Amino acid sequence: MRIILLAVLCFGMQQAASARNDREESHPDSVYVFTYTSGASTDGIKMAYSVDRQTWIPIGPNHSFVKSDFGSWGSNKRMFTPSVLYDGGKWFAVWNVNDEVQQFATTESANFWVWKPQDYPYLDNHENFLCPCLLKQAGKYIVRYQTKSGNNYEISSLDFRQWSSPQRISSEEYNHTNRHTDVMVSGNKQSGEIHRVPYPLVKDLVYKVSDASRRNTLYNENCGEDGGRFRGVKSLKASLSLTGESKPISTDLIGIFFEDINYSADGGLYAELIQNRDFEYSNLDHGEWNAKSFWEFKGEGASWEISTDSPIHANNSHYAVLKSEKGASLSNNGFDGIVVKKGDTYDMSLFAKSMNGKRQTITVMLKDGDKTLASTTIKVSSESWKQFNSILTPTADADKASLTISLKGEGNIGLDFISLFPQKTFKNRQNGLRADLAQILADIKPRFIRFPGGCVSHGNGLENMYRWIETVGPIWERKSQSNIWGYHQSKGLGFYEYFQFCEDIGAEPLPVLPAGVCCQNSSRGGHGQQGGLPMSEMDDYAQELMNLIDWANGDPKTSKYAKLRAEAGHPAPFNLKYLGVGNEDLISDVFVERFNYLNKKIKAKYPNIQVVGTVGPFFEGSDYEYGWELARDEKIDIVDEHYYVNPGWYIHSQNYYDIYDREGTKVYLGEWASRGNRLENALAEALHVTNLERNGDVVVMSSYAPLLAKHGHTQWNPDLIYFNNTDVFPTVNYYVQQLCGNNSGSRYVYGDMTVKATVEGRNGNTMEVSNEAASLRVRSSVVTDEKSGDMIIKLVNITPFDTPVDLKFETKDYQSQAETSVISGKPSDTDIKPVLSHLSVTENTTYTAPAYSFSVIRLKKK
Ligand code: AHR
After folding, report:
1. Residue 71, by phi and psi: left (phi above 0), alpha (psi -120 to 50) or beta?
2. Which pLDDT score is estimated for 526?
3. Which of 280, 683, 698, 861 lies 20 to 30 angstroms, CA to CA, from 407?
4. CB under 8 Å to 178, separation ≥6 — which residues?
5. What is the DSSP-derived secondary structure letter of residue 678?
6. What span, in angstroms and rounded, lies between the C-alpha atoms of 247 and 250?
7. pLDDT at residue 302, as a whole number
8. What are the residue ranges in the chain where pLDDT is below 70?
């Protein structure tokens, strides 16, 4: 009887199921979706859908909804065998990142579109993690997985964040869970998992993917297409009228971001002429480099070695020991040759000690080939380190000089920290900056300088995080370290020098320190993924950050850190207002926990310091969304946005900031550029500045990135300013920043810009019509500067038409001759400078904005 009942029940259930299937297939309020990867490990999770489980339609068709972010940049970010769970209207995913680490990746999403920044939980059983299967049972997330050694394990979590220790399971249990199945998608067999989801979810994704591809097409537009874009247009004309209304905007809008990338610091802005002056180079810096790199030793029967016995300071632990019988020499060519000028004075200094107790004589020479340009003789008798200083004055110019230290006859000598510095540095500061490079930065009139990074700030692994305290004090006691960009940071340009430079050029200092996590793209320290300092160390670390505030602003009489500043030569406070915490970090749980800890501590003790948080490297996506959510939740003062995008993005995203909350967290656009050094790029950037000015009540600061790049040592293109050892090459993008920095305001003046196109009608007559493409490309912003009383009009014209712009507003308070600075040319031009002239201004002035131009018109107060 029981068996019959069961059979009837089963039959009934099957009937009901097949009726439901029929309904579902004819009216798909829910559909099947298949989640899979293409098999290429750098690919991400894709989706296809089906109403009948037979025909699968890929969404995209090749769109990856989430890619792995684990590991160092590029091809190391890999995803294998993801397992995806659809539960309670949310998506959860896990995957293995490689077959070595005892970590796996987790993420979740409410809509399959924006995914939570990934976390990489550690497993504590010393085994790796392969082929996961994710399921939910009795309210718990369960992951069953395999290992390279053939074992099977299970871990579980109540919140999808904290995971239990792995428990061994049988292979049957593992196999039983494995939902992976093969289906054909666009003629290719793919392995993945099938889920049943409401159809609107798929509809929404189909829309989002096609919208993203439509937007990408717009973002990739360029001026080369202007012939087609403006076909039929004879001319353009515009008018600009002001409404009489204005609003206060940030006076710190234009600043600079200095990072030691592209040899910007050592070999660049930092004026030291000797490379590896302290013998601290190592293979951590770069491939085959070591403590002897960039030094050449000569001497018959002589030898040299690197010693670490009794160094001049523990932070500077390597030094050279030269042994000779008949004489020896050690030479350094600096950074691709040392440039010296006849008659200029150079501070030469070195530390030396006698290694055998005997008195030794060394000659230090500036040489150009065989020619000696300057020399000095030093007698070394002490067995303890002693610093020797002298001034070298070359008798001729040279671009490829070298510094040679020669030991006469028999000798055994220790040498360290061999330095050569021009006395002519920016503002003649000792241990100062290369004057021409510093000047070109000062010429932007930046309102702030962000330093020291970028990725340099959070570093390549936890050991490489930038620790400010190691960069102040006597330069030979500073701790040099490898640079994430593949070379060495001497730290000679340290926090004291950065703050001093800010003061010298009237810019606010904006130091950025790591949030207790290293760069998520690290190639060292925990398989390159974003490690965090243990929470047990965060109290000390928070103190380290707050010590900086004390160092910069404190009273030397009461603060030991302020005393260090005073001893270095700056008793007055530096008046620090901003402190960046974190740089475009992955907004993982590890990051959030540490950032919140630091932010709370800093704000509790220093409520007037503006903490600058971070929202990732893109203008949208996971880190952006989650970073902003964090900013709103934690009421972060300011967040640092970054985006490097094509000119088309700027043209088609002009209202990006208009919808931002005016009352909440402010924006620092800390890194931005338009991927090129052509006029077309620079004009897109000028256009963006007009939109930033209109939003200067929300966007309080901005800085183009990267700033400097040395020819032959460039890791990132494009940059704002290129240079070599003798010359500086500002780009057209630089001139846009310079014009904007020199012509910023304190109030934004509302205005209406109308653009009309003249086109030929059907009957051959011409008529004036609106033209969307032109309206997007002929734009303006007007600001007033309360200090000078001047009014500044910025006009951008990214069209092939010289465009007359009627300036319709009251001008009686201004002088009749306005100053104009104009950058114009062909979109592909790279070598352009602003041209200065004057414009007579009356109440109805027409200014013709040249084709492809950026014009700044400054109306001077009477
Ligand atoms: O500006 C170059 C790099 O770009 C910065 O170091 C980093 O923050 C960003 O990824």
Report:
1. left
2. 61
3. 280
4. 131, 133, 144
5. S
6. 10
7. 97
8. 1-27, 526-530
Q: What's the CA-to-centroid distance between 493 and ligand 1, angstroms? A: 19
Gap from CA of 859 to ligand 1 centroid (Å)? 37
Q: Are strands 508-513 and 448-451 parallel, antiparallel or unpaired?
A: parallel
For the beta carbon of residue 807, count every other beta carbon within 10 angstroms. 26
Angle at 482 between CA 480 and CA 483, to 5 degrees: 115
Q: Is the dihedral of CA 159, 162, 165, 166 positive or negative?
A: positive
Q: Tell which one of 257, 258, 259, 619 to mutate to probe ligand 1, the residue whose CB is within 8 A of the most ligand atoms.
A: 259
Asked if 93 and 119 touch (Cβ cutoff 8 Å), the reply is: no
177, containing H or E segment: helix 171-177
Report the Cα 31 to chain-centroid distance in Å: 41
Q: Which amino acid is at 247?
A: K
Check residue 528 and give its pLDDT: 56
Q: How many CB atoms lie within 10 A of CB 315?
A: 18
Token pair of 728 as six digits: 């500086």
- b/e for 758-768, b at 16 or more Cβ within 10 A? bbeeeeeeeee
Token readout for 210 is: 């096609």
Confidence at residue 26, expressed as pLDDT on a 0 to 100 scale = 52
Rounded distance between C-alpha atoms, residue 646 and residue 673, angstroms: 8
Query: Token digits for 82?
Result: 């993801």
Task: Output the pLDDT for position 27.
Answer: 56
Residue 88, C-beta contacts closer than 8 angstroms, at least 6 positions apart: none
Q: Quick one: pLDDT at residue 643?
A: 98
Hunting for tokens 């500036």 — which residue is that? Answer: 366
Owner of token pair 């299967």? 133
* Residue among 489, 671, 716 to mutate when testing ligand 1 (max atoms within 8 A of CB): 671
pLDDT reported for residue 5: 36
CB atoms within 10 A of CB 607: 8
Residue 219 dihedral angles phi and psi, to the nearest 5°: -65, -20
Q: Which residue has a Cα nearest atom 8 of ligand 1?
A: 454
Closest ligand 1 atom to Cα of 671: 1
Q: What is the pLDDT of residues 497-550, one digit of tens each?
A: 999 999 999 999 999 999 999 999 998 876 556 689 999 999 999 999 999 999
User: Helix, strand or coil for residue 772?
Assistant: helix
Distances (CA, A) of 762 to 188, 462, 759: 52, 69, 10
- In angstroms, rounded to a whole number, what is the distance separating the alpha carbons of residues 134 and 76? 24
Q: What residues pair up with 702 in beta bridges, in sequence order?
A: 254, 669
Radius of gyration over every alpha carbon of the chain, rounded to an integer in angstroms:
32
CA distances (Å), origin 113, targets 194, 204, 383, 620, 855: 18, 9, 68, 11, 41
